[in-house]
Every structure is written in structure tokens, then in C-alpha cells.
DUF3027 domain-containing protein
Amino acid sequence: MVGCGPVGDNRTMSTATSPARAALDASADDGTVGDHLGSTEEAPGLVTERFACLLPGYRGWYWAVSASVLDEQVSINDIVLLPGDEAIVAPEWTPYRERIRPGDLGPGDVLPPEEDDIRLVPAWSAGDGDETGVVDRHFAREIGLGREWVLSIEGREDAAERWYEGESGPDTPIAKQAPGVCGTCGFLVSLAGDLSDRFGVCANKMANADGRIVALTHGCGAHSATRPKRSASASKLPDPVLDSTRAELEEF
């Protein structure tokens, strides 16, 4: 314990510097403590003394020594190593689910949906793609028929918006210059369900979108109605400027 001035006086912080340095020197490895950087009175009677850190790999960090000043006595509370404004620190933690991107999954990887994923609803509450409407959803749930989860309205619209604005939508350069739209192409495979009025699957092996979902308003040069253009060349060629079809003899 070291005596000091009244709590809240500037002498409180200056008096705590020496015992804080002594405690730090006793705790840290030799040669890892630098100059005194300053003092901060966190609250009445609670002071933080800062010292430069000379540890290799800790550039910009500093030692923080917390000291309590009470009844003209100084007590060391804690010694920690903290990053300064120029310190190199690890990036802020981002959960795995927020870091993963489409296409990141590899063989054996799993990515279960969130428990409250708004894109999914129980099949008994929204049906399971049955177009006849004769399936008793509650009975199907009891006996385990169909899928447990299906797309909600939000899930369908989320997918539709993503597909419509993607490479197979109507606003791509290839679609804008296409001779026709996918909705009139013979290579289009129709979908079933609520998205069938806006999307289908391309089945033209020569098309860029073969095997992929395409908007009915998408299009490309491989449309089934595409026909080769006839040549627009002249039927009669003009006389040649230089006749190179005959041999010319010259006398020497």
C-alpha cells in the first residue's frame, strides 16, 4: 500500500503511477513494459494507469493497470493487455451462418435451416403441392405422408425475386437481344405449383441456361423458333477491276 492525496485530486492519479508500474513489472516479462502513457480516473477512487506494450506481435497494444485509491492507500485491482487505436486485432466475430454464401457447401457439409425460418411452413398448414385439393392435410400429417415442411408464401416470393433478378431473368443482355422469350420456346419444361406462371426449366442443351430455372420472360438465341437468316448478297457480281483469271504474256 502507498499513501496518496485525497480522492478526485490530480495527485490521486500521479501517486498511483509508481505502484502500478511496480506491480506491472512484477507481473510481466522483462522488457515487455514501455513508457507510461497516461492515467484515467474511471470513477472517484478508481484509476487506470496505461503503459506501452513491447511484446513482439502486439504493436499498438498497451498495459492497463486498474488501481483503487481509498483512505490515502493504493490497491492494485487488475492488470490487462488492451488494444489501442492502431492495434492489429481479429475482425469482429461473424456467426458461421452469416459468413456462408451460396455455393460454399461441399460434399458432406450440412446447413440446417433456422428454427424460425420464415421461408418454411409445416406442410399441413400450406399443402404439399397437391393440385387436386383432395388431400386431407391433417390426416396426411398424422400418417406421415408428404413433406414435413414446404415453402411459405414469403419463401416462394423470395425465390421468385432472386430468379427474376438473376442471370435467367428478363433484364440480361442475352435476353434483351433474343428473338423470342422462353415462355414461347419449345425447349421449355413447365413447372408445377405456384411459380409455374412465371418460371420454367430450360431443356435445350445448346442454351446457356440448360437445366436451370428461367423466367418465362427470359430468352436467348437458341429459341426454338429461331431460323437462319438468308444471305443478302447480290445475285450478279460486278465486273472485276483486275482480271486475274487469264494469263498475260509480255514480250522482251
